[in-house]
Amino acid sequence: MSGGGGRGQRGGSGARRGAPPGPWRQQKLVQIHEALSSDPVGVERLRAAAASPGGLLTDELRRRVWPKLLGVNAYDLPPKPGRAACRDHKDYGQVLLDVRRSTCRFPAGMRAEQRQVLQEQLVDVIVALLSAHPELHYYQGYHDVAVTLLLTVGARMGLALLERLSTHHLRDFMDPTMDSTKHILNYLMPLLQRESPRLHDFMLRAEVGTIFALSWLITWYGHVLTDVRHVLRLYDLFLASHPLMPVYLAAAIVLHREEEVLTCSCDMPSVHQLLARLPPDLPFERLVARAQDLFRCHPHAELAKQAALQHHKSISIGSFSALQLAASCQRPDTVLRQLQQDSSTAPGVPMPAGRHHPLVKAAVWGLSATLGAAALAVTQTALEWAPEFLLQLF
């Protein structure tokens, strides 16, 4: 991972983060809101918006759109995980170590006690999901995906999205062996060969393989990028796309750096070192556009016909159509909210999500003014999990 110094960019304003200027931005906002309000929800329009230049523009929209892209009901979220049960899981120790080492993934300027609360919740979310799905196996780097979700949408929604991703987009990475992960990596070289035989042959001679891209794929680039705006832009794309889109983006990045690669020494250490470190000034919008062009020009089914790919069955790829179909039948949040309220009118029913004590709301507002984007993580998780902690901060 890159050093912690560059992570200071993670503290920018959440409302403006990644939102490009121009009149088309307002038009895009209108289109997204129309898609969210239609019944059924215009999921295809949301996918198009997430993949198009600028992505979903703001964290507020991500909190509304990301669940729709994965077919998650914001009014039927999983409960808070129990910490005692989490500690009995076989992977608890490794998850705890990885999360403790992830301080650079949290916004610069966040107070240590706030980060500690979020890290504890991150451990609970990961281990609770693994406990509920014994077929899933933890891998180092999984926490990088989980923390991006936690900081953007909050803990309970983050758990719901992480579960959906773990059983679909990330499923091949969560097998007990690396065979399925190697299978996903094996799509990269055929893409390079089709686009640039010269680059492909150079990398073969260098015997560099594809391991340089491993952390890119299994963390959705969260482990290797220092600017949260770029990470969230890529998550917009990946959540709206086929599970292999991170591979197509990897190909776009390598192709973009073709001249750099061809001018370095043709040996494995030199080429691996060059490719494994992503420059901070990559033109991500151009790379995103090229990745989508590659996906259209070189369908994964065509790539899979090559000998190294045709005999392996990918769960992530195989389940994607069903996930898309399920997501296309969602009701808008206004309807879901009314259904949830109708079911909560009986005496003794807990207060619905989103309605909190005014002192807690005042604490959240004060925190928002103080921390900017960092407030997102604390407001979402504090209101859901530990409002008394939030009140202690003021």
Question: DSSP strand (E) fraction?
Answer: under 5%
Helix content: 55-70%
The largest sheet, given as strand count, sense and whether it forms a barrel, is: none
Structural class: mainly alpha
**Which whole number gives the mean pLDDT?**
82
Count every beta strand, where a strand is a DSSP E run of 2 or more residues.
Answer: 0
What string gives the helices and strands in order? HHHHHHHHHHHHHHHHHHHHHHHH
Number of helices: 24
Low-confidence runs (pLDDT<50, min 5 residues)? Answer: 1-19, 347-394
The rough form would be described as: globular
| Distance N to C terminus | 35 Å
- CA radius of gyration is 21 Å
General description of the model:
Helices cover 60% and strands 0% of the residues. The protein is built from 24 helices and no strands. The chain has helices spanning 23-37, 43-51, 59-70, 83-87, 92-100, 112-132, 142-153, 155-166, 179-185, 188-195, 197-206, 214-218, 228-239, 245-256, 258-263, 268-276, 284-297, 300-303, 315-318, 320-327, 333-342, 358-371, 374-384, 387-392. The relative contact order is 0.14. Residues 1-19 and 347-394 have low confidence and may be disordered.
Concise summary:
With 394 residues, this protein is an all-alpha fold. The chain is 60% helix and 0% strand.
Task: State the main characteristics.
394 residues; single chain; 24 helices; 60% helix; 0% strand; disordered C terminus; mainly alpha; disordered N terminus
